[in-house]
Write a structure and sequence with these properties.
- The model has no long low-confidence stretch (mean pLDDT 94).
- The chain contains nine helices and eight strands.
- The protein is α/β, with parallel strands linked by helices.
- An eight-stranded parallel barrel has the order 1-2-3-4-5-6-7-8, surrounded by six helices.
- The longest helix has 27 residues.
- The structure holds ligand 3NM.
- The site of ligand 3NM has 17 residues, from helix 8.
Length: 221
């Protein structure tokens, strides 16, 4: 059984803080505590993607965290990634599992509880729940609001991560709605200090988990 034990999920995106490189921002993010990393670069061509994937594979190995590739099971294989993340439009979940094998991590984006339950049935290892807030990183996709986060916290049994417009300024609301894992792109890679942004989010996740365990403990007495 795969153990997916992450709190903070960082996706590369394409818009780093001015003057910064992918390697710099992701090294900082890892240094600041990113627990899992995904390469998502919608405009890069195949060789450029492979080069970025190899760089991230090297960095994530150095820090001992899983590395996921967006959309492309073949690229995941070629770059020796730990898995692939697929959107609703990408479909091909079963094909990805067949291609990558039982040990690969397969994540699926979901935008409703119905999609979440279908992804669970399809054998996803984790799902994304979002976009919680409107975000320019995924334009045109309406926000699912905190309501879907609340539903996920009640009904989803596999690991799920809240995503979309989340940063240190609003993470508390998302954690308050029941999330225990957060994913961010712009709040981290667009920050002047990705390491600091990660540390802040990790501290908030840890505090929320602590409160929850405390409550469960008290409720159980
Ligand atoms: N997927 P930011 S929202 C890549 O809801 C992505 O499935 C989403 O970027 C989903 O942290 C999103 O900059 C963008 O808002 C997240």
């Amino acid at each position: 059984m795969k153990k997916l034990d992450f709190g903070l999920y960082v996706i590369t995106g394409e818009n780093y803080h001015p003057g910064r490189t992918l390697e710099e921002v992701m090294r900082e993010a890892l240094h600041g505590g990113a627990d899992i990393v995904q390469l998502r670069h919608k405009t890069a061509k195949k060789d450029e993607l492979l080069e970025k994937a190899r760089l991230l594979r090297r960095l994530t190995r150095e820090y001992g965290v899983p590395f996921i590739v967006n959309d492309d099971p073949e690229l995941a294989l070629e770059a020796e990634a730990d898995g692939v993340h697929l959107g609703q439009e990408d479909g091909g979940w079963r094909e990805a599992r067949e291609r990558l094998g039982p040990d690969a991590i397969i994540g699926i984006s979901t935008h409703s509880l119905e999609q979440a339950l279908a992804a669970e049935d399809a054998g996803a290892d984790y799902i994304g729940v979002g976009p919680v807030f409107p975000t320019e990183t995924k334009p045109g996709r309406p926000a699912v609001t905190l309501e879907y986060v609340r539903q996920a916290s009640r009904h989803v049994r596999i690991p799920w991560v809240a995503i979309g417009g989340i940063g240190p300024h609003n993470a508390q609301q998302v954690l308050g709605a029941g999330a225990t894992r957060l994913c961010a792109v712009s709040a981290i890679v667009g920050s002047a200090s990705p390491a600091q942004a990660c540390r802040e989010l990790k501290a908030m996740i840890a505090a929320a988990r602590g409160r929850r365990n405390g409550q469960a403990y008290e409720a159980g007495r």
